[in-house]
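Service request form, structural biology core

Requester: graduate student, group of Dr. S.
Request type: structure prediction, single chain
Budget code: on file
Notes: please return the result as structure tokens.

Sequence provided:
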Amino acid sequence: MKTRVIALFFLVFTLSLCAQAEDDVSIGRNFEQETGCDFRLVNWGDTQEMVILSEEAALAESEEGSLYYIGSAFGHTVAIYYLFEDDKLIQGSFFVYEENPDVSNYIKAFNDIKKQLITRYGEPDIDDVSSSTERYHKPENWPEALDNQDLAVSSYWETPKTLIGLSMTSDGETVYVMVEYAMQ
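Core staff response, request fulfilled:
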């Protein structure tokens, strides 16, 4: 019982620190050290129960090893995915959902999130645009490239504890914008 009370106190203390910084995008590359959080309001190694207690978004699905929520991040509606291994958090992801699924809205979301990640973590360690033709590498041609399933745009950051990836691609029907955080 005493251990549970101490763990609950630690969780509440950590959540209060993380909540103060969750929407603060003015923090630099040491975001984890300055906020005490690795992904949203939790840390790598937290249990599924701890994540459930801390997550404020609407739980959509729960199964052993993963949690799936609908909520908000970076000012966008997102699906939030938590992945666990041996009941320890190892990865978290956001999948952007736009009410108006026009390609340009996803491109705007990608660019907006990238700006926020740059503010938070600095310039990306890796920036990549992949396409079968050089013409699609230009942002003004991205809508056509995404419609033709011929574009993958990604940026990656690395912190002492976390790998962060932002990507945008399409299957011709749907554009996918994803932010992934993975424990190192």
